[in-house]
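We close this part of the discussion by returning to an individual protein. The encoding preserves chain order, so positions in sequence and tokens coincide. The sequence in question and its structure tokens are set out directly beneath this paragraph:

===
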Amino acid sequence: MNKLSLLSAYDVQQSFATYLRQKRKEKKLSRKALAERCLVPEATIKKFETTGQISLRQLLMIWQIVADLEPFYDLTKPAAKPMPKSIAEVLADD
């Protein structure tokens, strides 16, 4: 069953692009300097920052330079405690 969400893939892409551009600027890295450090072409970084379009591998290569990969990796792990699926489960947790 699909979960209803008001977020689209485009919204998430734009959020990632905005977040990483902000982190790059906080570290005072130009696109060229970032490209040299993460081995992703400068043109790809520019395209990502303006359109949100990038491959997952390149996203991770950029991310590891400007931010911690651990929270990103943690998304692949199961939640410590599953979310309740009914009101009865919520009330039973008290």
Observations:
- Residues 28 and 38 are 15 Å apart (CA to CA).
- The first helix runs from residue 9 to 26.
- The radius of gyration is 18 Å.
